[in-house]
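Observation: inputs received (chain + nicotinamide-adenine-dinucleotide).
Thought: call the complex predictor directly.
Action: predict_structure
Action Input:
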Amino acid sequence: MRRKISILGATGSVGGSTLDLVTRSPDRFEVVALTAATNVASLAEAARRTGARLAVIADETRLPELQGALAGTRCRAATGREALIEAASDEAELVMAAIVGCAGLEPVMAGVEAGRTVALANKEALVTAGSLMTEAARRAGATILPVDSEHNAIFQCLAGNRSVDVARLILTASGGPFRNASAEDMAKATPEQAVAHPNWSMGAKISVDSATMINKGLELIEAHHLFGLAPERIDILVHPQSVIHSLVEYVDGSVIAQLGSPDMRIPIAHALAWPERMPTPAERLDLARIRSLDFEQPDEARFPALRLAREALADGTAAPIVLNAANEIAVAAFLDRRIGFTDIASTVQRALETITPQPPQSIADVIDIDREVREKAHEIMPLPAN
Ligand code: NAD
Ligand code: MG
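Observation:
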């Protein structure tokens, strides 16, 4: 039996890798729905190629263009919030959540509340609504499978063990393109330098997040919600080769790691095929050629975003939503050359100091807080340099 899959964020980096795997295994998957923000050509091409029945474009002005591009197919073109929710919760048994940012939260929750299996790449959804989402999954009987490479690694390392026997989780971090850069060079860094990740090829936003290392902070929050460990029992270790994707230490002193070449198709395939395995064309790991693996402590002085994320999680309030929204607007401003690279972390810090909402009771509260931070963006971001 083929599994019905929908891919949210099908035109992105994770979405594209998912399409690649799914089209290589047509006997395993039937694509029912695809979504994208603005890229009509690439969405329509993927819909035609996979035979999807629903294609959703988030930008409403582009619906006529999408309808034109799908003319003569059996694929329905749609737009708007309801259509995104339909893509996540109607026909699909398996939902790949690969929208970037808090924009993916509502469709992810729709999939969870409908009791689907959700392969979750969209870490911002879990960062902003972690407990609400894990509680909803428990209520609805939904399964959340981590796609983020570190969390997928931990999920694999936990298999067959009792959670009470886990001593700590160790999230590895590549350190990003500025691992050895001076604070002065980082202040002058350009978007081109920041998105040039040494090991992984990813979307622009997560590439900048890796450069500031807030990505590892978001992943700390993500790991806390996925695996239920106290933040003090989740460590971060810089490992520049990105071969060990994360580790679990047990009470007896055993440490289990998951290794592989840095290709997102490996964790994506794991989530798509779970509890089975499926082949991928990813390069095989050749340890004799790699020869040595390096490790070092993260430097919180040059990467203050790490500390900000840890504090936001310890705060126990709405701080992770503020952290995430301020980061999203600051990263967009940096990519637009309106602020400098080191202004990203200072914007996040100012937002956390000045915006202190009550803890959210519902997804609607999360969305309101996210909107409030975006509206206050002009007050918390530094003025353009010129
Ligand atoms: P990307 O920018 O390459 O793609 C994002 C996708 O989301 C695109 O299809 C885009 O059309 C869609 N999208 C963007 N804004 C939207 C909106 N407002 N409404 C609806 N759709 C929207 O991003 P990516 O690198 O593929 O990352 C996707 C998610 O996966 C992120 O949360 C990221 O943190 C996470 N992730 C990515 C990688 C990676 O290797 N790229 C690794 C781990 C985790
Ligand atoms: Mg990751």
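Thought: report the result.
Final Answer: The pocket of magnesium ion (ligand 2) is lined by residues 148-150, 219 (CB under 6 Å). Residues 123-140 form the longest helix (18 residues).
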